[in-house]
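Problem 12. The chain below contains 96 residues. Write out its predicted structure in token notation.
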Amino acid sequence: MKISELRDGMRRVNVVAKVLDISEPREVYSRFSGTAHRVATATISDESGTIKLTLWNDQIDKVKVNDTVSIENGYIKSFRGEIQLNVGRYGKLSVL
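Solution.
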């Protein structure tokens, strides 16, 4: 699937893309359990466009700028007015 084809609300998204940049991780607290989590945003691109990819905890340390990543079974959600790709609990992020 190409990044240009992604739309808000899509599920079971499979994408292969290159990491252009990664934000500094920040700490957020779960509303449910109150535990701390690290979150960062990576910008990824393929030949059709770019999108933000949300990275959580261990995923942040796995991915580096210029890596090619594969996201399987991800989903698209709108956050602060722009769509973002999320790996989620049932998805898989791999560095190729």
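Discussion. The chain has one domain: 3-95. Students who got a different answer should revisit the alignment rule from Section 12.3.
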